[in-house]
Sequence to fold (73 residues):
Amino acid sequence: MKYIILIIVYSIFIISCKTTEYVTVPLTEPPIIYKPSNNITTQKELLKEYQRSLIKISEWQKWYNIQIFSNYY
Fold:
């Protein structure tokens, strides 16, 4: 019984160590639309710019996931 449990645990370990394929994207300068503007002077402007950046990144992520047929959002 001890050896059977050991074999099962070892099998699970081997299966979990399976190589995962990742999509690699070269790092480049982000487009201007994703960069925050330089003329932020108040906290309110900062929050608005942060919100705009998150919306743009979310839009890109949705587009990218559609392109690679991913359901991960």
